[in-house]
Amino acid sequence: MVEFGYSQLGPLLITHWGVSGPSVLKLSAKGARELFEKKYDTILKINFVPGMKKDEVRKKIEKEKELHPSKFVSKTPILGLPRRYWERILEIHFIDFSKKWSGLSSRDLHVITEELTDARFRISGKGEFKDEFVTCGGVSRKEVNFKTMESKIVPGIFFAGEVLDVDGVTGGFNFQNAWTTSYIAARGILNSI
User: Fold this and answer.
1) Cα 4 to Cα 123: distance, rounded to the nearest angstrom
2) Number of structural domains found in the chain
3) Which residues pair with 151 in a beta bridge?
4) Pair 111, 152 in one domain
5) What is the predicted pLDDT for the residue at 3?
6) Rounded to whole angstroms, how far apart are CA atoms 79 and 35?
7) What is the arithmetic mean of pLDDT over 129-145?
8) Distance (Å, rounded) from C-alpha 166 to C-alpha 43?
9) Contacts of 80 (CB under 8 A, 6+ apart)
10) Of 117, 72, 78, 122, which Cα lies nearest the Cα of 95?
11) Residue 76 is part of which domain span?
């Protein structure tokens, strides 16, 4: 999410309704507050060939053109891309599936390079099926005694789990937070009676 200055490297899953996977979940956790403030409307930039610069990708595409001039571009995905995604790149940039590598124009080479290294996707709203995994916000940690989980503001009130402003990147972290803070809160409550 370029607008917020966040980036994340890792596995990416392309689904029928968008992107998901560990890297997307981590990125969502990093930018949860900003996404909320922007009403979940921003641009996601994806580099499908991390570790390679644009000029390296361009040279790789040019090399493919040189080595396989008579092969169909649509039948020879490059850089380990899944065939269906490769075909989608060609389709959205109006590169005919019957075009051979020798027929790729400079414009074609440019748009393929850009799509692989600097693809832009609009984020508009939350998940259609309300299956979000990231939570954030809650009772400020400054207002809680972590030895008992009791409120520093209102004595006798104890907090645990996701009601606290503790953001977990994955469900495992959130479970551990819930179990640990619940245990401490239960001990705090017992000791207060």
Assistant:
1) 13
2) 2
3) 144
4) no
5) 82
6) 32
7) 79
8) 26
9) none
10) 72
11) 54-117
